[in-house]
Amino acid sequence: MTAQGQAVSDPPAVPGWRRPGRRPGAHHTADRILDTALAMFAESGLDSVTVRGIAARADVDAALVHHFYRSKEGLFTAAVDGAAVPPGLAELLREPLTPVGEALVALFLAHWERPEVRPRLLAVLRSVPSSPVAAGLMRDCLDQHLTAALAEAGADRAAERAALIGAQLIGLAIVRYVLRSEPLASLPVDRAAAAAGPVMEMYLAGPVARLRRAG
Amino acid sequence: MTAQGQAVSDPPAVPGWRRPGRRPGAHHTADRILDTALAMFAESGLDSVTVRGIAARADVDAALVHHFYRSKEGLFTAAVDGAAVPPGLAELLREPLTPVGEALVALFLAHWERPEVRPRLLAVLRSVPSSPVAAGLMRDCLDQHLTAALAEAGADRAAERAALIGAQLIGLAIVRYVLRSEPLASLPVDRAAAAAGPVMEMYLAGPVARLRRAG
Fold it and tell me: H or E element: which one contains A42?
């Protein structure tokens, strides 16, 4: 989950993928497969897409998809690589004395607004409900990135806070980008961040005393 | 979106479905198809399931599925009918002077905890990201039920509040029931409601002054 800035057309970083040497055009073909797959995952999620369907739309033999990416899941991982964690998240949360709730929502939504990032996030979000691979990827985001960043920033009950913050962010993304429900769908990023910011602030820095009694 | 309390085995309420008269066993067959479809939708979402697959698992001819339910979407609508709106929602929101944020989260999560409701909600949630039918159903919930109930209770900016409340509830459901991410997954309902309650209170009754400037 690194290299967030890489273009979608960069070589996929999956086991089994080999930088093309002797076969001219192989890199181009791998890219075309990846771009096609990403578009299809973003439209309808991992489970609804088949390797056969990707191969047909990319106009290559299905065996080539397996050659470059091993499996549909390998292709999915390569296609969405790194997109789920907005750059700057850890840095933002390192400001424990500053209210960063609104900035956190703005960072998240601005990440979604990037044309090169949106399809990858949509692919993840559309795949999470039906694919264990995508669900695992998102769980890792909550556990390894958000919880870790909160813990590093000195927050108590970091896992609980991360779960609640993650739930709020995922919910916002679904209503705004999947359901496209108004008025949230067309609200400018700064307005949406202003609306949800105080809630984030509460989850980030508010008391979680009643949660503390749990378990 | 009525009849929330009906059992999954009740006759499906879709156009084209006829209460079986002369053909003995037809009702039983329609029920078996519905139960099988619901289990499959809850496992992997509308898009990943085929009529052929449902027929095979229910051990009936695919033509019978079409006979009883017309289409996969008709079957989906019949299977999840009414589950998306927790009973008592409108009544709860009719208490404008009482803080009901915690009660609202508790009502929502208790609805999810019902064994006869959970598969139907999972089916909707797993289908929303990739199916326009399911997305439309959830958008209707936000627009027609939550917004309407808030407006009736006298809330200003009811649509904005409904979008934010809906986002938070959907996010909680995904983290708790789809990702099953801890600690939220195994937190008792009352503890989870206590944790998210103040946030709901803010969305229900807090100032939305900055949202007001939008648009």
Answer: helix A26-44
